[in-house]
Automatic annotation (TrEMBL):
InterPro entries listed in its UniProt record: Zincin_1 (IPR010428), Zincin_1_sf (IPR038555)
Family matches, as Pfam families: Zincin_1 (PF06262)
Protein name according to UniProt: Neutral zinc metallopeptidase
Signal peptide as annotated in the record: none
Family matches, as CDD domains: MMP_ACEL2062 (cd12952)
Organism: Novosphingobium lindaniclasticum LE124
Length: 132
């Protein structure tokens, strides 16, 4: 039997799911997310992939762009606001491959990228996930 998914959710659905994930982040963390924006792109571009050490655009589902809070300073200016980019096509593929709900998948990626906003490394976050 063939599974049918219908039309893939568009960027506006991903953005709404990301904002819903932000709304569930508890205080005192939530108060430090003001100004973090969410963007949805189909795939990461070549420059972004090189910057994070990946060759395959299907491997990157999200990325935090910005200076982590623990590195901010009044002496730094002229930078873009921090933002989280969700990569729609890799997220859709993971959704289909894993059976995890799209809401849970987007929430996981958003929380992971928010962790970078707070200065956590990928290793820190994997360790926290393993301990949970």
């Amino acid at each position: 039997m063939t599974q049918r998914y219908g039309n893939a959710p568009g960027p506006e659905t991903f953005e709404a799911l990301a904002h819903a994930a932000f709304a569930r982040i508890p205080e005192p963390f939530a108060q430090h997310l003001e100004g973090v924006t969410v963007h949805v792109e189909e795939f990461a571009d070549e420059e972004t992939l090189r910057a994070v050490g990946l060759e395959d655009a299907w491997e990157l589902t999200g990325l935090y762009h910005g200076r982590p809070l623990d590195e901010e300073s009044v002496w730094v200016g002229g930078e873009f606001r921090p933002r989280i980019t969700l990569y729609r096509q890799p997220l859709l593929a993971e959704w289909c491959e894993t059976g995890v709900t799209l809401e849970d998948l987007v929430t996981h990626v958003v929380v992971h990228e928010v962790g970078h906003h707070f200065g956590l490394s990928d290793d820190d976050m994997h360790r926290l996930e393993d301990e949970a």
